[in-house]
Design a protein that fits this description.
This protein has 365 residues and is an alpha+beta fold. It has helices spanning 3-27, 45-61, 73-77, 82-92, 102-110, 135-140, 207-210, 214-217, 276-284, 307-315, 354-364; strands at 35-36, 42-43, 67-69, 125-133, 147-154, 157-165, 170-171, 178-179, 191-196, 201-205, 221-223, 235-237, 254-256, 266-269, 290-294, 301-302, 319-322, 339-340, 345-349. The strands form five sheets. It has a seven-stranded mixed beta sheet, sandwiched between helices. Strands 13-14-12-15-19-17 form a six-stranded mixed beta sheet, covered by helices on one side.
Amino acid sequence: MYHRELEAAVNVVQKACSLCVDVKKSLLSNEARILEKNDNTPVTVADFGVQALVSLELRKLFPTIPLVAEEDSGFLRTNNLVDSVVSVVTNKASSSDKTLTHADVLEAIDRGGKKAIIYGTKPATYWILDPIDGTKGFLKGCEALYVVGLALVVEDQIVLGVMGCPNWKEIAPDKSKEVPESESGHPTAGVIMVAHLGCGTWTKKLPSMLGRSAEVLGGWSRCFVDACCSILEARFCIPDSQTWEIQPLSRLLNATDDADSIGDKEILLLPGCCGSLCKYMMVASGKASVFIQKALDQKVIKAWDHAVGTICVQEAGGKVTDWKGGQLDLTADQVERRIIFPADGVLVTNGKIHNQILDMISSAI
């Protein structure tokens, strides 16, 4: 039903990933581009550039569909980075936007910022964007994972989602080692993952990363969650900001990151990767079986950290709920649609062990 929106989302996320790669190349030699937001999470020109680019591109095609996104130009204005953002956006924008002004870019950013859109209790259609999920990973080095995530919500239902991860790694058949190069000898190119309601989840290599056409790199491949039916055989991941010890399952199961020495009542905890959306990609692609996040009193859970990941996991055969088994409620923030309030936490699984884990969480709590 939403093929036009999906095509547009794929195109703009690919452009956004290319923007991120370009900014990252210059970032390593220019520390002035790295800042700290008020919530102490790092932010760069890329965050603002992606939000402006996505906002501009989508507004041209779908002018009546509003945008909910993470960034706000107020922070950008006070740090003298507007010129840099205009430059990177102009470089990637459509030909009709090659004469962008400061005002154009700042307005595009604020179209998705706080107070930009006031919803009623029954919003019809809107985009949810995370310009860069895992900015800490973006800053760490060339190999760290980060994701550009975009979802479309219609009548409170997520109908499509697109995630681009420029540094995504392939996994060897034994699923224990990353493959540093493709079969052709070239470095892995990163991937774009898409999902449409009722049509599955699909991935394709990002063509711009290797400077080759999509035809050369191959077409779309459908992806599925793993087939693990045993909690003790499952591969778990948790937020980088949390430890296994604070998860209720730690009262019943120990965790190790050594796949070769898993003991009795011990699960495999995969190495951390920045951002929630990377974990959703891992579950949707079968790299991980479970992603579990505890809701902490001092930390707000944002819609853009979960919306696009939810549809990608669900369309790949998995399941996403809060810790009481309820669906994530995108309408909880009735005014701005920016915050969600999952009961106790978020549970993302391959679906086969979902209810078992919910029972264990309930028992442990």
